[in-house]
Amino acid sequence: MCLAIPSKVIDINKETNIATLDTLGVTRKASLDLMQDDVAIGDFVLLHIGYVMGKIDVQDAQESLELYAQMIAAMQDEE
Question: Residue 2 pLDDT > 70, yes or no?
């Protein structure tokens, strides 16, 4: 099973085609090489193994991020 994590674009380097993303509070870089759609700062995208795979609307991104937060909290409660 693969997970694609909703992430917010906070910067884009057009020379390298690399986006800087905020993923659950962690900043990381990801390639835009697989994207056919334009991506802009502020967009939510799906991140998978270092590549942006697609755009996601804000409401869907927020719902997914809330579910991830609930899963993380449940795992921490088990410890």
Answer: no
pLDDT digits (tens, 9 = 90+) for 10-62: 999 999 999 999 988 999 999 999 998 899 999 999 988 899 999 999 999 99
Nearest to residue 40, comparing CAs of 68, 15, 20, 64? 20
> Which residues fall within 8 angstroms of residue 40, CB to CB, at 6 or more apart?
9, 12
SS3 track for 48-68: ECCEEEEEECHHHHHHHHHHH
**In the structure encoding, which two tokens stand for residue 55, read together?**
């755009």
The C-alpha atoms of residue 65 and residue 14 are separated, in whole angstroms, by 27
